[in-house]
Amino acid sequence: MTNAWWIIGGVLFVLLNTAAGLIWLERRMLALWQDRYGPNRAGPFGLFIVLADTLKLFFKEDWIPPFADKVVFVFAPAVVVASVLMSFVIVPFAPGIVVADMNIGILFFLAMSSLGVYSIVLGGWASNNKYALLGAMRGASQMISYEVFMGLALMGVVVLSGTFNLQQIVEAQRGLWFFIPQLLGFMIFMVAGIAETHRLPFDIPEAESELVAGFHSEYSGMKFGMFFIGEYLGITLISAMVVTLYFGGWLGPAFLPPVIWFVIKTFVFISLFILLRASLPRPRYDQLMEYGWKLLFPLSLLNLLITAAIKLWLNT
Amino acid sequence: MLSLLRSMWLVFLHMFHKRDTYQYPEQKAPLPARWRGRIALTRDPDGDERCVGCYLCAAACPVDCISLQATEDEHGRRYPEFFRINFSRCIFCGFCEEACPTYAIQLLPDFEMAEYNRQNLVYEKQDLLIPSQGKYPGYNYYKVAGLAIKNKDKGEAQDEEPPVDIKSLLP
């Protein structure tokens, strides 16, 4: 039992520090891809920028607008962090390093990640501000349209491995990583994952050029920081899930321990998220919905159908 | 879809490009000579003040950040008794430089004027006056003006005809 507490504490520690470290990583990587240097003054390679940002967030005036619904306003940012942290419960970092080895792992992940939208909707609604409300509405409809085929895209992996348990899914990839037989599923999951974390180019709920800052227009101080950390945790979660489901999780040549393989692969995907932010323009709002419902949703159904058919054909 | 992947690849390649950043405090940005930065009062080639206190700069200033008071010395040469620019209001538009008939007020390529205390941004005459001719070397207003001052009588200015004796009939 004590072992489990160590794992929970370790996972929490690593995740929260990763989320903070991503502040630096993102700014540095974006700078690299825009021919700049990025933070390079505070500390070695500008690493203390994280400290400075954190201090700034803590000492900023934490203002609650008088017209806001106070309870919901304070509650909303906590939801996103809590729900994303809960999703990490089922991610297997290495054989044995997992908080809860559940047989319904993927279902739990889907359930928890869909809770994240509450944070956006409640935050936008409680702000009692038209821009925030518009952002929340966009967030809600984006989540609804991309949540559906996110689950469907995952079902290809489930069909191939025959289990919802993530450890067993990783073990099933020992011969061949699932991104080769499930290339379409991987791409759909990736797009849905980006939309799920409402990262660029799908940052429509907070599109700062149209809505002031979208659903978190009225947020300041550490309450804004929670949304911020929640976003980075979301990136880490989706990257970890992509690695677990399609890129063989902790599997890799034996010269490095499994957990290091997992971390390396996850960071490759986190960098891919940042590269996406650096390179792609934001789609228009109706384009996003149309793309989701008319293209990706049928494609994910098709992917599931074909995967299932091939699986049946191979088994008989 | 392919174009998206292509643009991602092209952005990724920027990782290996040269950086465009100026590492500012160590490496200064090369500012053009006509950069509109800090305002200074320049001197003429003799080392005297160029400003004649005509108030044109203060009149041209859209934000009214210049205030001055003109006075005269014993030879009739005008100069500002005080000259004050409030840089916390200044928008560095350069209108004062355009308006100045004596090239006295000039905007220099220098932007490093940050202060912790707002009051320190109010520059008095001793802060503004520099021992230099600025962008227009060799120009001396009192050498071309038809005004009699010390060491120069009427008609002795550059390209100036001697004054006509209106009481005389001789050509």
From TrEMBL, chain A:
Enzyme Commission number(s): 7.1.1.-
Keyword Ribonucleoprotein: no
Gene name linked to the record: nuoH
InterPro entries recorded: NADH_UbQ_OxRdtase_su1/FPO, NADH_UbQ_OxRdtase_su1_CS
NCBIfam families: PRK06076.1-1 (NF004740), PRK06076.1-2 (NF004741)
Enzymatic reactions: a quinone + NADH + 5 H(+)(in) = a quinol + NAD(+) + 4 H(+)(out)
GO molecular function, one term: NADH dehydrogenase activity
Main location: membrane
Role: NDH-1 shuttles electrons from NADH, via FMN and iron-sulfur (Fe-S) centers, to quinones in the respiratory chain. The immediate electron acceptor for the enzyme in this species is believed to be ubiquinone. Couples the redox reaction to proton translocation (for every two electrons transferred, four hydrogen ions are translocated across the cytoplasmic membrane), and thus conserves the redox energy in a proton gradient. This subunit may bind ubiquinone.
Membrane topology term: Multi-pass membrane protein
Chain ranges passing through the membrane: 6-25, 37-59, 71-94, 106-126, 146-164, 176-195, 224-247, 254-275, 295-314
Top class in the EC scheme: translocase
Protein name: NADH-quinone oxidoreductase subunit H
GO CC annotations, alphabetized: plasma membrane
Gene Ontology biological process terms from the UniProt entry: aerobic respiration
Keywords annotated in UniProt: Cell membrane, Membrane, NAD, Quinone, Translocase, Transmembrane, Transmembrane helix, Ubiquinone
Record's subunit section: NDH-1 is composed of 14 different subunits. Subunits NuoA, H, J, K, L, M, N constitute the membrane sector of the complex.
Cellular location(s): Cell membrane; Membrane
Lineage top rank: taxon: Bacteria
Taxonomic source organism: Chitinophaga flava
Record family assignment: Belongs to the complex I subunit 1 family.
Pfam families: NADHdh
TrEMBL record, chain B:
A Pfam short name: Fer4_7
Class of this enzyme: translocase
GO molecular function, one term: NADH dehydrogenase (quinone) (non-electrogenic) activity
PROSITE patterns: 4FE4S_FER_1, 4FE4S_FER_2
GO terms of biological process kind: aerobic respiration
Cofactor(s) needed by this chain: [4Fe-4S] cluster
Binding-site residues, [4Fe-4S] cluster 2: C61, C90, C93, C96
One GO cellular component term noted in the UniProt record for this chain: plasma membrane
Residue ranges of domain 4Fe-4S ferredoxin-type in the record: 39-71, 81-110
Gene3D superfamilies, A to Z: 3.30.70.3270
Membrane topology per record: Peripheral membrane protein
Cofactor: record remark: Binds 2 [4Fe-4S] clusters per subunit.
Enzyme Commission code(s) on record: 7.1.1.-
Reactions this protein catalyses: a quinone + NADH + 5 H(+)(in) = a quinol + NAD(+) + 4 H(+)(out)
Subcellular location, record wording: Cell inner membrane; Cell membrane
Keywords tagged on the record: 4Fe-4S, Cell membrane, Iron, Iron-sulfur, Membrane, Metal-binding, NAD, Quinone, Repeat, Translocase, Ubiquinone
Family: Belongs to the complex I 23 kDa subunit family.
PANTHER family named in the record: NADH DEHYDROGENASE [UBIQUINONE] IRON-SULFUR PROTEIN 8, MITOCHONDRIAL, NADH DEHYDROGENASE UBIQUINONE IRON-SULFUR PROTEIN 8, MITOCHONDRIAL
Task of the protein: NDH-1 shuttles electrons from NADH, via FMN and iron-sulfur (Fe-S) centers, to quinones in the respiratory chain. The immediate electron acceptor for the enzyme in this species is believed to be ubiquinone. Couples the redox reaction to proton translocation (for every two electrons transferred, four hydrogen ions are translocated across the cytoplasmic membrane), and thus conserves the redox energy in a proton gradient.
Subunit structure as annotated in this protein's UniProt entry: NDH-1 is composed of 13 different subunits. Subunits NuoA, H, J, K, L, M, N constitute the membrane sector of the complex.
Xref: NCBIfam families: NuoI, PRK05888.1-1
Name listed for the protein in its UniProt record: NADH-quinone oxidoreductase subunit I
Organism: Chitinophaga flava
Gene behind this protein: nuoI
